[in-house]
Fold each of these.
Amino acid sequence: MHPWKRLLRLLRPDRTDIRLVIAFAVAIGLLNLTVPIVTMAVVNTVAFGTLIQQLIVLCLGLLVALTIAGVLILLQYLLVEYIQRRIFIRVASELSYKLPRVDLKAFDHRYGPELVNRFFDVLTVQKSSAVLLLDGVSLLLQIGIGMVLLAVYHQLLLGFNMLLLGALAFWVVVLGRGAVRTAIRESVAKYRVAGWMEEIARHPVAFKLAGGPRMAWERAEALTREYLEARKQHFRILLRQFAFLVLLYIVINVALLALGGTLVIQGQLTLGELVAAEIVINLILATFLKIIKYVEAYYDILAAMDKLGQLQDLPSESLTGEHHVAHSKGASVTLHSVSFTYSGQKWPALQQLSLSISPGERVAIVGPNGAGKSTLADVLYGLRTPQSGWVEIDGVDIRSLRPDSLREHVALVKGVEIIEGTVLDNLRMGREEISLMQIHEILAKVGMLDTIMAFPDGLHTMLWGDGKPLSLGQASRLMLARAMLGEPRLLIIDEALDHLDEQFRDMTLATLLGPDTPWTLIVITHSEAVARQCDRVITLLPPARSSPREVQSRAG
Ligand SMILES: Nc1ncnc2c1ncn2[C@@H]1O[C@H](COP(=O)(O)OP(=O)(O)OP(=O)(O)O)[C@@H](O)[C@H]1O
């Protein structure tokens, strides 16, 4: 979608306020016209030596007009402030609704947090739209009204208007060609620099390697060069547009003084009219040199909309489908010839995989790196849809279920995903119905209760995105506790137990395998000791590059 269309869509809910801002700008423009008109009247009054009372009346009239204009300016300022706030709220709420629902494949080739940096462009949209609405509109009106006024003074000045309009059209269409494209390219380059800085901060240990700082510097330098090149291209267009405005400013100034003077000499224009016309012209011309600032704001806003569009266009999971209704303990799982290939990959990660897991069964999935174990977990959790074959949970094809409904029955523990918040926030994850008693119980079961309670703030201890102040093993146990709290009917654990020491692993396993647990358990692991404790071990082999693979299964 063109950034312009995106902007219109974003501003649509504010259209009434925007119309008001424009209406105010028209009124302010008209009221400001009283300045040249009164000046003309004063010049004529003084020239003909009329009474002082007339001067007082003129000044009072001017005072009233300018006071009304002042009030309108304040109201306009207020409205634009509200529009800015609403833009922020709308973009923030749209994205916070969208991001948890984004289809995982959107992040296969892009790093999500880096992509989300584009949210900061909402500030550009806010600031630039304020500048354009407050000053840009009145500037255009000032030019428009000024031109009408000039046309009223003399038909020769009408000709001048036509020339001016032609010059402006040339300025926008010809000299401005490619400006939106270069503005977008500049902002892409800007994000690449920011993304690299983020990458350095994200890998503090890797960049402490002997060559790390040099690599960080060299890549930053290369990306900065790319940015400068993109900025130069954009600036070239701005500069040529600005140079044309300066030229126009000089030519018009001189030509109009000469034209006005000639008309006065020929008696076709009064002295007062010449002075007023000069004021009007100078008003137009003074705004001329400022136009470039607004044009740059306009290009920036479109580039920002393009960036925000990258977030708005992220594909979402479909929220259609049935709600899953099943109350039995433990879900059954069946895979029917499931094949899945990542986009851009030549070979499948899963190839014609068939297996069946009974309700309440505890199954270990083992296999070498790259065998497709994590991909299988993603498929079962509804994060990825097989290109062929299908998966049944409780005998229901998961394609016909709403993903959120499926995840009320299925939980996946994969990696360490600690969010910035308290321990309690991290455990509940919005499920306010989970009681403190349940939380204490589950923390004790994964051997984390003493650790958490030893922190001065206990359950209210703040955790940071990287899991600090928890160790990797502690954070993994917190992830397990988070999943178990939801009492899923299918619990999939992707290597989380492999991070634990023997004591905590056995303790957690005892909880996971306990006779009263409500789930069917799938544990993906590289640990023989973990696999041995399960009812059954399924070995996944890397997909044969030419023929369907075998699934080996043995009792645990
Ligand atoms: N996001 C992705 N995009 C493209 N290919 C991927 C992606 N994720 C995994 N793969 C590929 O899919 C195959 C299976 O990967 P998967 O992570 O499922 O293996 P795994 O058995 O879990 O491995 P490990 O034991 O190392 O965790 C691998 O060949 C991998 O390169």
Note: The chain has 18 helices and twelve strands.
Amino acid sequence: MDERGLIRSLVPLLGSAATADDCAAVRHGGEWLLLSTDMLHETTDFPIGMTDVEIGWMAAAVTLSDIAAMGARPLTLLLATGLDRPERLAGITEGALACCRAHGADLAGGDTDAHTELTIVSTGLGTAASPVRRSGARPGDLICVTGYLGGAQAALSGHDQYWRRLIEPVPRVAEGLALNAAGVTAMMDISDGLALSLHDMLAVNECGFAVDSARLPRPGGVPEDEGREFALYGGGDFELLFTIPAEHFPVVGVDATVIGAVVAERSVTVDGAPLPGRGYMHCWGSSPDQNPDFR
Ligand SMILES: Nc1ncnc2c1ncn2[C@@H]1O[C@H](COP(=O)(O)OP(=O)(O)OP(=O)(O)O)[C@@H](O)[C@H]1O
Ligand SMILES: Cc1ncc(C[n+]2csc(CCOP(=O)(O)O)c2C)c(N)n1
Ligand SMILES: [Mg+2]
Ligand SMILES: [Mg+2]
Ligand SMILES: [Mg+2]
């Protein structure tokens, strides 16, 4: 059983809206509140060698990234920390606060307890007059990504020049706001890799996604085939994936690349062939082969 299948099994209980987007969207007065929560663990999310300050930054960044993905402005964050050692809390909080401040948010509270494996849950709140959903893509729209893809996976695969890219993800908050204002039709952040993200988009749209691999912005200095794999299937980049009518692209102030087109046929393809929904995913199984998280 993998994470996506398990989340899908909640739909009969919660309804499809609960799992359709990067954040929960709640109408409040004349605007929308956007809420996201993310759990990170030492063994699966914090590569060996990260400092506590970097761990705190990453925990805040992954949640601010989900708020950015809705085209929303982050307001505040709560940080709940299960600590294997109490002396780690100061550094973690310092890193999370730096990330919040860099993106216009407060760190307003949290929770602290003891746990065998360092575990951090960050919960964020943002606002938007009109949030951007993962649904809303229309045939003919361009498919675009901000920045470049595959850098975090390149670092995990030994390309040390990408280490900072892996451990210090930058939530694309300003870009998300600008893209919302520019009229993007659908958006999400790419936390688990482009291929999985496109399949997440497919699940909530009535159309399909055709990607041209030659157009993928890849990590420089990595052999071409490897870079293509990292860009398609590597997680941890936290760039934005969005669809936009051609007449609205490019968007001033947003570094983004066109990687393909929204098509009528409900499938995800790369260079005309089906793109597998493979990427960074938590699984449950009894052997290391079945389960990448197995230790
Ligand atoms: N246990 C759960 N109960 C209710 N909704 C859930 C649960 N787990 C996930 N979801 C919802 O399912 C959707 C997809 O979750 P997912 O974790 O894949 O998104 P994400 O936070 O954007 O990705 P990432 O975890 O890589 O940051 C979100 O809307 C999330 O709120
Ligand atoms: C060992 C290792 N592999 C990958 C990454 C990059 N990374 C950080 S958070 C995340 C996905 C979102 O997390 P989740 O789906 O658990 O909420 C990914 C892919 C990392 N930091 N360490
Ligand atoms: Mg997300
Ligand atoms: Mg998330
Ligand atoms: Mg998640």
Note: The radius of gyration is 18 Å.
